[in-house]
Specification:
alpha+beta, Butyryl-Coa Dehydrogenase, subunit A, domain 1, Butyryl-CoA Dehydrogenase, subunit A, domain 2, Butyryl-CoA Dehydrogenase, subunit A, domain 3, seven-stranded mixed sheet, 11 helices, 9 strands, about 50% helix, AcylCo_DH/oxidase_C, oxidoreductase, flavoprotein, Acyl-CoA_Oxase/DH_mid-dom_sf
């Protein structure tokens, strides 16, 4: 039996014990990998604002990609949604940027192919993606649009025989500067429906430019992409996607994954603050002995524990195939709001040291803002839940 010696101090209600023994081995593998291979280099990479390409080889050796997909990767059958969520939490607990690199590839990009591709397309692309021989990206957000992308997508696709011509622009696309496969979403000018296309690296007219001067997710290479008469064969159009409703099925699952990232940020920040409070001495004693410091730590632990419980049930709904948009939207809105509180309280415990990258907490404090914003803002997710509970749409 695997012992619980590596269990997180933040797991106050022993949520990890809900995993099977085999699942927990995978989680501990990810935990050990992030602690030993990734943590020592993230501050330097974050300060430089560069993605260390050698990380791809390190992830490849672990065989962690493809875990959610039955028949692909090293793990068969497909892992439970609880394990997939806890893995996202675990990677984020060490570094949100590295977790996002992996999540874009293993979640958004691979799931788009898995859920929206034909069997031939899944067999063509998922094995090399699971092996991380090919890295994926997901291009939906546009420079002039955010949450209105469902009805206002400006990137277009025009079919000419067995070829599609894509024109437009995308922004904030993680991994796009070096990805081998980019899932590009575009509006078919003939039927006005959203369709998905796999654009391969080196395709003429596809130009990704790295976005500089970010204050969050600095390790992630987000790009602004221009598409000028990009020619994509019909064989690269995702055959199972024919409307934004189909795309929404993908976003429903990945939005829940972002909520798990929010939990990971909370845990990472809380653990840093707890360790610091035990070590930092003021007035002749550790600041952990001060009531106000304990108050911040306990409030943080409460947010973590409540969020974890919500996400456990979300995973159960996913495994049962009965979860809905409003379930993932409530989780994303609630957990990332609690995350903002925890990173602020945790940074507060560090005092002036909390703004110095050397202590790690500043990285979590900054990266939390990106997680709070993407995969639907709090306001948009609130309106999705509001419509579900009232029966009334408050969307403009």
């Amino acid at each position: 039996m695997t012992t619980l010696e590596d269990q997180l101090t933040a797991d106050f209600y022993d949520y990890e014990t809900l995993l099977s023994e085999e699942e927990r081995k995978v989680l501990v593998q990810a935990r050990t990998f992030m602690r030993t291979e990734i943590k020592p280099m993230v501050n330097e990479a974050w300060a430089k604002g560069e993605f260390p390409k050698e990380l791809i080889a390190k992830f490849r050796e672990q065989g962690l990609a493809g875990v959610p997909y039955e028949g692909y990767g090293d793990h068969r059958p497909a892992a439970s949604n609880l394990l997939v969520g806890m893995m996202s939490m675990e990677l984020t607990r060490t570094d949100p940027s590295v977790s996002t690199f992996f999540g874009v590839h293993n979640g958004l990009a691979m799931y788009s192919v898995y859920a929206g591709g034909s069997q031939e397309q899944r067999d063509r692309w998922l094995p090399p993606m699971a092996a991380m021989d090919k890295i994926g990206a997901f291009a939906m957000t546009e420079p002039l649009g955010g949450s209105d992308v469902a009805g206002g997508m400006r990137t277009t696709a025009k079919r000419e025989g067995d070829t599609w011509i894509l024109n437009g622009a995308k922004k904030w696309i993680g991994n796009a500067t070096f990805a081998d496969l980019v899932i590009v979403w575009a509006r078919d000018v003939d039927d006005n429906k959203v369709k998905g296309f796999v654009v391969e690296k080196g395709t003429l007219g596809f130009v990704p430019v790295k976005i500089e001067n970010k204050i969050a997710f600095r390790i992630v290479e987000n790009a602004e992409i221009t598409l000028t008469d990009v020619r994509v064969p019909e064989t690269n159009r995702l055959q199972g996607i024919d409307s934004f409703r189909d795309v929404a099925e993908i976003l429903r699952a990945t939005r829940g994954g972002v909520a798990w990232q929010g939990l990971g940020v909370m845990i990472g920040a809380y653990e840093l603050a707890l360790d610091y409070a035990k070590e930092r001495r003021q007035f002749g004693r550790p600041i952990a002995k001060f009531q106000l410091v304990q108050d911040l730590l306990v409030k943080s632990l409460g947010n973590i524990t409540a969020s974890w419980g919500m996400l456990v049930q979300l995973a159960r709904l996913q495994d049962a195939g009965i979860f809905k948009d409003e379930h993932s939207s409530l989780a994303k809105a609630f957990v990332t709001s609690r995350m903002r509180e925890v990173v602020a309280w945790s940074r507060e415990i560090f005092g002036g040291n909390g703004i110095v990258l050397d202590y790690d907490i500043a990285r979590f404090f900054a990266d939390a803002e990106a997680i709070y914003s993407f995969e639907g803002t709090r306001e948009m997710n609130t309106l999705i839940v509001g419509k579900a509970i009232t029966g009334e749409s408050a969307f403009v």
